[in-house]
Amino acid sequence: MSKILIRKGRVINPADGMDAQADLYIEDGIIKNMAPDLSDMESGDGVKVIDAKGRIVVPGLIDIHCHLRDPGYEYKEDIETGTRSAAKGGFTSVACMPNTNPVTDNVTVMSYIQNRAKEIGAVHVFPIGAITKGLKGEEMAPIGELKFAGAIAVSDDGRPVENGNMMKNAMLYANTFDMPVISHCEDIPLVDGGVMNEGVMATKLGLKGISSASEDAMVAREIVLSAATDTPVHIAHVSTKGSVELIRDAKARGVKVTCETCPHYFSLTEQACDGFNTLAKMNPPLRTEKDRLAIIEGLADGTIDAIATDHAPHYKDEKDVEFDLAPNGIIGFETALALSLSYLYHEKKLDMMKLIECMTVKPAKILKLNKGELKIGAMADITIFDPDMEWTVYEEEIVSKSKNTPYLGKTLKGMVTETIVAGELKVSEGKLIV
Amino acid sequence: MIIKPKRDLLGLKNLSAEEIREILHSAETMKYVLSQPVKKAPHLLGKSIVELFFSESIRTKLSFELAAKYMSGTISTVTVPTQSMRERIVDIAAAIDCMGTDVIIVRANRSGVADLIARHVKANVINGGDGANEQPMQALVDLFTIYQKCGKISGLKVAIVGDVRHSGVARSNIWGLKLLGAEVCVGGPATLIPPGLDELGVSVFNTPQEAMLDADVVMSVSLGKEYAGIMYPDSREYARFFAIDERRMQYAKPDAIVMHALPVRRGVELMSRVMSLKNSVLDEQVTNGVAVKMAVLYLYGRKKGLQGNEIKDISDNEKGGILK
């Protein structure tokens, strides 16, 4: 196994609040040593030295919500290309959603994903199982079996669990197995066929709008169910002011609710849909400036726990259709950290420690993963980045199989230079080397 | 190298007041041509125009066909029923684009179809109506009609009554009227008025009478049957509270004109009695429809050079280069 020495980097470790210059020595996939100065190890036999001067060294980033599309939709993305894209973005662990084809609601598909990821994955993959069979919302999926086959959590993401009773039972049952339940909050009748946020832009474009009430109403339901059953619930991709306010209030009352948001919700608004831009179509939709600011405030005061990508690849031809018919979602691995740095850190809304916490410690805690921390003896999952380096998003340089991102041509500030997964260097000097 | 700048007419929200005035001005000339015993002009000789219709239409389809033929253009119509469509819209449009087409007129039920096609073809694209987004032709006709009847648009008060939420005609009219300086009010049930209009400078009311107060122009907009029972109870209740009848007409100015894009649901949106009053200009709207389309085809049917002169196609020059 390789030996790596990271020198002179600014180490930020949210688990213990460390923010200081330090060196790390990695061998056999483990962090063997961590100290202010390990220069004497440079001369060691076969040691790869990474000069991290001027850059920041953090625990490997953890994405609690993404779509790898494998099995079933490999033309959009597969476990190999998806994990490579994740590594490029600085992620060392990703949790992928079960809306595959067939749905990840049984041990067979779960095993396939586990094995494939072990075989060809560039980063750690933690598959999420379904709450209901086929994501249909009618019959509970074998949550216990899924856990023992490797599921890290359950969710029907892509869809809400429409029936409140089913959700309540699922929360109670999953809790017995200590399985986190992740809820995609959407009240389908309230959505009423809408395709973007209900507001001025939808009116301008003559498109059917989705009221924020659709998300808020379901968030409220999950909070009530969590309190009633005394079980935890995690709200996926929060996008509205209303959701943030409900969750803030619930947390203050001691309800066991956690939540995540995505970079697009704190960097874009419904304006991005102008000109019928299907690259800005997603679910939940991009909202108004008021919502965007509320999301940032939610991150700043800890109401929102984690930043996830909701990486949702779609083949080019699929997005090149009428706005109504275009599939929802954008890719996100490769721009997540840069967007977070550009819109939160550089805009002085969140300090570096808090920002990194949202992408390491907090997602790890929600998924009950023994990760997200830099310490001697821990698995060497490490990300190194330059917070000030500017780069432009070019389609040709995107590693993901799909290129559906509204940030094409945009210049962002902050770039991943190295990604180390279980002690193996996957990204070096900003380039994938696997 | 000669540049071929594309000139699309996708909607009034993308036009300037200048461009609208140019079309209206040209329409006046075209209306004159229409009134002649021999309706023939050479403006579109040799130009290929294709109507690509994904939804049904009688008036728009026919008036474009007549407009093109009156000006000696070559026009073909392709009607694609979307239910049985096996190809993507952009693929169909790309094929038409390869057949020497100069102008593609697009009509669809979904918003944004003309914009989508325009991104993929070299031909100029004219939006013949794309669902709730825009119906630029109708709005241009309406603006032209108002201008001819009232002598101006700036400073006029226009009331748009009905299901504004689902109407491309209403939207295009709002953009055009605001651009040319009119005061716009909408009146209809709260469920049928889309949000944010006040931010766009339109006054919103939930009764026709309030919107029609001292109006110079009363525009009635179609009510879709699909929303009965969901967004409003039924046509009977709708007619009672929201139809434009003689009683409600009293709120408008005595010489106010009444307009409707047609087809109209008599007794629901507009009462027949009002339609036969001298204020009604519905028939004139149809005549003006052809004149305005002639103007639009004339202005958007050719590639424009810097001075607005017709320019040669690149292909001619390239061919010459190869033969050399």
Shape call of chain B = globular
Q: Percent range for helical residues of chain A?
A: 25-40%
Q: What is the count of helical runs of chain B?
A: 12
Biggest beta sheet attributes of chain B: 5 strands, parallel
How confident is the prediction overall: mean pLDDT of chain A?
Answer: 97
**Which regions of chain B are unreliable across 5 or more consecutive residues at pLDDT < 50?**
305-324
Principal-axis shape of chain A:
globular
* Distance separating the two termini of chain B: 17 Å
Strand content of chain B: 5-15%
Going by helix content, strand content and strand pairing, the class of chain A is alpha/beta
Give the integer mean of the pLDDT values of chain B: 90
For the structure shown, list the relevant keywords.
heterodimer, A: 434 residues, alpha/beta, B: alpha/beta, five-stranded parallel sheet, 9 strands, globular
Give your account of this protein's structure.
The complex is a heterodimer of chains A (434) and B (324). By secondary structure, chain A is of the alpha/beta class. Chain A has helices at residues 79-88, 107-120, 143-148, 164-176, 188-191, 200-205, 213-229, 241-252, 263-267, 289-300, 316-319, 336-345, 352-359, 361-366, and strands spanning 3-13, 18-27, 30-35, 47-51, 56-59, 61-66, 91-96, 124-129, 153-155, 181-183, 196-197, 209-210, 233-235, 257-261, 306-307, 382-392, 411-421, 424-428, 431-432. In chain A, helix 4 crosses helix 7 and helix 7 packs parallel to helix 8. The radius of gyration of chain A is 21 Å and the shape is globular. Chain B has 324 residues and is of the alpha/beta class. In chain B, the strands form two sheets. A five-stranded parallel sheet of chain B has the order 7-6-5-8-9. The chains are: A alpha/beta (434), B alpha/beta (324). Chains A and B meet through helix 6 of A and helix 4 of B.
